[in-house]
Design a protein that fits this description.
The complex is a heterodimer of chains A (about 110) and B (about 120). Chain A is mostly beta strands. Chain A has strands at about 10, 20-25, 35, 45, 60-65, 70-75, 85-90, 95, 100-105. In chain B, strands 2, 4, 5, 6, 9, 10 and 11 form a seven-stranded mixed β-sheet that branches. The chains are: A mainly beta (about 110), B mainly beta (about 120).
Chain lengths: ~110, ~120
């Protein structure tokens, strides 16, 4: 079965750029999207179709996808961005989530 | 406002059954695929099942295939998940989510907790 691999944790200082990766076989041939989940809350879509931002999502969130890796980039990271982030893609008609990355802003 | 509200969770014994519901509002429910996703306590998101817009096609994760059934009532704007032969490892918050016509999920409901324990 298809797997998406994320680092368990990423740390970033306020105002700096955070990058969260998601790796999967030929992931660049698929569309990737990203969700943010804060403690006790439901996931929220932050990036879809590799690099598009839904309305209401700040411009500091961006995405890319090439080769075997999709990347979520948060520029000028703020304390409010501290959360778990999950990548998601489709493979052979099934939905796959990455294991999630805890972003710590310190 | 687009909204999804789950209900039906609770405590059930191993081997028991439970039916979850997801009430949709604020959009044309019958035009969208829908999904169930679960999250065990302290763990990540796991896709469970999806149904197409008219209910004629479904798919399931291997871990629930043969035990869970997804369905929908477009007249009632409601999505369902019938869960049978429940196991301790099915304990999780269950979210319904709209497939936003491109394979991404937006929005998500608030979730309903299912606890399987004796």
């Amino acid at each position: 079965s298809y797997e998406l691999t994320q680092p368990p944790s990423v740390s970033v200082s306020p105002g700096q750029t955070a990058s969260i990766t998601c790796s999967g076989d030929k992931l660049g041939d698929k569309y990737a999207c990203w969700y943010q989940q804060k403690p006790g809350q439901s996931p929220v879509l932050v990036i879809y179709q590799d690099s598009k931002r839904p309305s209401g999502i700040p411009e500091r969130f961006s995405g890319s996808n090439s080769g075997n890796t999709a990347t979520l980039t948060i520029s000028g990271t703020q304390a409010m961005d501290e959360a778990d982030y999950y990548c998601q893609a489709w493979d052979s008609g099934y939905v796959v989530f990455g294991g999630g990355t805890k972003l710590t802003v310190l | 406002e687009v909204q999804l509200v789950e209900s039906g969770g609770g405590l059930v014994q191993p081997g028991g059954s439970l039916r979850l519901s997801c009430a949709a509002s604020g959009f044309t429910f019958s035009s969208y695929w829908m999904h169930w996703v679960r999250q065990a306590p302290g763990k990540g998101l796991v896709w469970v099942s999806r149904i197409n817009s008219d209910g004629s096609s479904t798919s399931y994760a291997d871990s629930v295939k043969g035990r869970f059934t997804i369905s929908r009532d477009n007249a009632k704007n409601t999505l369902y998940l019938q869960m049978n032969s429940l196991r301790a490892e099915d304990t999780a918050v269950y979210y319904c989510a709209r497939d936003d016509l491109g394979g991404w999920f937006d929005p998500w409901g608030q979730g309903t907790l299912v606890t399987v324990s004796s």
